[in-house]
Design a protein that fits this description.
Helices cover 38% and strands 25% of the residues. By secondary structure, it is α/β, with parallel strands linked by helices.
Length: 300
């Protein structure tokens, strides 16, 4: 069993523990909880009437409507349900980049472990998929508190390797996640953009609440390099010897175009997106993101 403190920092968790991870869209689950369900049952929030059908429970008949209209109608209420969250963590070779305290892989695993902790703490269920160009490991969805160790162990065992191929992974997750829930992608998104967007759309079409944490190193965003430099591909054998100063303007422009496109596609499909630098304190990044979602939930 790996040391849980590697990806689960006690001080950060202490600051995050006051937050709740709410589902923006309707989710499915087994237990009563804080999230809206597509199913109808008996709860405090009235939803609608429907005409009585033979076999309906007479306890749910609205007798006041019957007295006025001489027709039988059944009250339907909106149930609350527990959240079923699937964490998708990119462990491809490009995630190994980084010179700070945490490289992208370590930051992504820490972020995913922190989210798993929050989900389990509020008695919801969480599972995990580690992937590159194929699914490397799958941790089933569970709600027991000690399930966090299985997730950390899986992430710790799957070190960065191979290329990233998003769409087949999204398709696999969609086909193996029967109930609607929350799906969280943690990745640097260095893959075919069309496949990535196509996969995210697929998950939304299946009714899932989708969150994207786009993890990038400061170097990838700011391009601070100067002097003769050799750039080597982490997911290919290609390399480039150049003066980076001559490339910086074009690189920054291309990066901004890429980021704008990702943000735009996420917004169009009602997907929550956050760009996070590995230099940014994890608890601050998560607190800002989750607080924003909570405000959205309360406005509904």
């Amino acid at each position: 069993m790996p040391d849980s403190r590697r990806f689960l920092h006690p001080e950060a968790i202490k600051r995050l523990s006051r937050l709740e991870l709410r589902a923006r869209h309707i989710v499915e689950g087994f237990l009563s909880g804080m999230h809206r369900s597509p199913y109808f049952g008996q709860s405090v929030e009235f939803r609608q009437h429907r005409e009585y059908a033979p076999g309906d429970d007479l306890r749910h008949v609205d007798w006041k409507v019957w007295a006025r209209q001489d027709r039988l109608y059944v009250k339907q209420f909106e149930e609350d349900t527990n959240l079923r969250c699937t964490l998708m963590v990119d462990v491809s070779n490009s995630m190994a980049y980084g010179d700070g305290p945490l490289n992208k892989y370590e930051y992504a695993c820490t972020l995913a472990s922190s989210l798993a902790y929050l989900v389990l703490r509020q008695n919801d269920a969480v599972g995990c998929v580690a992937f590159d160009d194929h699914v490397r490991a799958t941790v089933p969805t569970r709600s027991k508190r000690n399930h966090i160790h299985s997730i950390i162990e899986s992430l710790d065992a799957n070190r960065p390797a191979d290329k990233t191929d998003m769409y087949p992974i999204f398709l696999n997750v969609a086909e193996n996640t029967a109930r609607r829930g929350m799906i969280v992608l943690v990745s640097d998104l260095l893959a075919d953009p069309e496949g990535t967007v196509k996969g995210l759309k697929l998950l939304r079409q299946r009714g899932h609440d989708v969150l994207v944490f786009h993890v990038m190193d400061d170097d990838e965003i700011d391009f601070p390099f100067s002097g003769p430099t050799r750039f080597e591909g982490l997911e290919s054998d290609e390399f480039l010897n150049c003066n980076p100063r001559s490339l910086r303007e074009g690189y920054i422009e291309a990066l901004q175009t890429f980021l704008d496109s990702i943000r735009r596609d996420c917004a169009r499909n009602t997907i929550d997106y956050a760009l996070i630098r590995t230099s940014e304190p994890l608890d601050a990044a998560l607190a800002t993101f989750i607080s924003s979602r909570l405000q959205t939930y309360r406005r509904r």
